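Worked example

This section walks through a single chain of length 171. The input is the sequence exactly as stored; nothing has been trimmed or padded.
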Amino acid sequence: KDAAEMEARLEAMASARQQASMGVTGEGVPMCGAGGSYGQPNQLDIDQAYILELELKGLLAMLKGQPAEAERWLQKASAVEDNASYSYGPPEVVKPSYELYGEWLLEQDRPEDALRQFERALERGPLRVRALRGKLGAARALGKEDMAGAVQQALDEIRAKSEAQQMGQRS
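Given that input, the structure is written out below as tokens.
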């Protein structure tokens, strides 16, 4: 039942994304119309929606117990994310495809492949905690203690800075 509902929602997402893409110019900006373009999706919005759609298809395949299909969708999400224009600040996609794919690869006991995905995630979002945690898990699974130590140190520094900032705000 959950899988059927998810498939229906995915179809609706795909339809809405395709319709939105018709309102974007070749340069990726919303077409001007009588109502103006404020609030209209641009190419980055459409790409991010597509990435989410592909990630959800991967999760659906996981739910159905189809690991090869899950990997196919997660690889495609990562490829689309590779080619999407980069926006500064926190990622709009809640969980970047590299992280989702990396976590899945760790679950499949493929730490070397997972490590590559977490490193890709860190190229786009340096010091992103979720990607660092994934890299730490992959490094430990591979027995790369020097790498694991360096990643753990980075995580400890991030935690210490966060705690110091929180203490400063309470004063």
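What to look for: The two ends are 51 Å apart (CA to CA).
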